[in-house]
Structures are given as C-alpha cells and as structure tokens.
C-alpha cells in the first residue's frame, strides 16, 4: 500500500506469474519494470534465483499443489498468469486450482488448440497462444503493404495501424465518414511523428498519415479494400 501525491491510499495491483520460461519471464520482467507488485513462482530453483532481484518476491513452488497456492495467498491476487507451456497437465491443474480458490482473473498460456479449449472450459479468463497469435499478427501486417501493426481485441475485433494513401488525401474525417460508411472508428492519427488522439471531425487526412482504427475484422477489411491504396 502506498500514499499518493494527494494523500489518498494507492493500492497497487498484485500479480503472480507461475512459470518463468521465456514467456512468463518476459511478463514478470515487464510488470516489474512498470512498478507492479509481482510474485514470481517456478518449481525450478535456478529460474527463481534469476528472478529474485527482479520480482517483488520469487518463490520455488510446485503450482499443482493446492496447499502451496493457498499458503502463498494467491486467492487475494488481482491477476495470475499461468505461463507453464510444455507440461500441459501442470498448466491445467494449476489453472483449475486457481479458479477454485476464487482468483478473479487468470490468464493462461496454451500450447495447442485442445489445451486452449480445456483451459477455457475450466474457467481461464484469458487464454494466450503466443506463437499462433504472433503468427496471425505478423501475417496480417505482411499481407497488406499499408498495414503497419495489428492487435487482436477478440476473435472478431481488432485495432489496426494503417497508412493513409491518395484515396484519402485532403479529405476530412467528416468527408470520409468512416463510421457510417464502414462501421470503423479512427481513434488516432499520427502525422510527422505527432499523434492526435480522438481527432475532430474537421481534421484532414494526408497521404502518408498513420491511422489507428478500431472495428470488427469484417468492417476493417472492407475499409482497407476500399479506402487504402495497394490493397
Ligand atoms: P517458454 O516457451 O515460455 O520458454 P519453457 O519451454 O522454458 O517455456 P515450459 O515447460 O513452458 O518451459 O515451462 C515454463 C516454466 O514453468 C519452467 O521454468 C518450468 O520450470 C515451470 N513449471 C513447469 N511446471 C511447473 C509447476 N508445476 N510449478 C511451477 N512451475 C512449473
């Protein structure tokens, strides 16, 4: 618990990362760098030693042992990330115990589609499939020359960064009326390195501007085909 600038109490979110391989390790490192409270757990002593100077606490523990997870007080954590990949049995059992303990939010890493299905069935709130998700993301940005980056929000919605071309050049957002015409929203425009978040309707788009758009994949596809060059 911390006292904020104006005297109020700031309660930091508490995270636990179980499994400190490349994936879990990277999550643990990043959360810690962002100043979050992180409990790092792994059954491998060497991995735990590596994270002792990085995480708030690092402990050697077998996460498939319910009594261990209870004694670590995991039920009080805001978000637990299960980053065990290869040992599917351990990943499933750990996720199940965490949900039974009443952990509010559990994110689990899946090795394959069946693993993902089981994790969802037993109550994982979010399932990540890093290799597949990254593959989709990269494929989406390389199949289209005007797409710079892509972030999947759900299996049907995304945020995409695209380059405006000649078809949009000199037109204002109200001229383009992309929400009515395509069902997508332009949430930000980057021009000469400056970003304008929530642009006004009278803002003009120029060839080469970077647009950040949000919408359903179907609508984004239509927008890309009809409004972007090189599509
Ligand atoms: P990555 O693909 O993220 O690099 P990895 O291949 O290094 O992962 P995984 O088998 O996916 O390793 O497991 C990640 C970590 O989870 C390992 O450090 C492993 O020791 C740990 N781990 C596996 N089972 C358990 C368990 N039951 N309790 C705690 N930690 C575990």
From TrEMBL:
Entries under Pfam families matching the protein: TrkA_C, TrkA_N
Keywords: Ion channel, Ion transport, Transport
PROSITE patterns: RCK_C, RCK_N
Database matches in InterPro entries: NAD(P)-bd_dom_sf (IPR036291), RCK_C (IPR006037), RCK_C_sf (IPR036721), RCK_N (IPR003148), Trk_Ktr_HKT_K-transport (IPR050721)
Keyword Transferase attributed: no
Keyword check for Transport: yes
Name used for this protein in its record: Potassium channel family protein
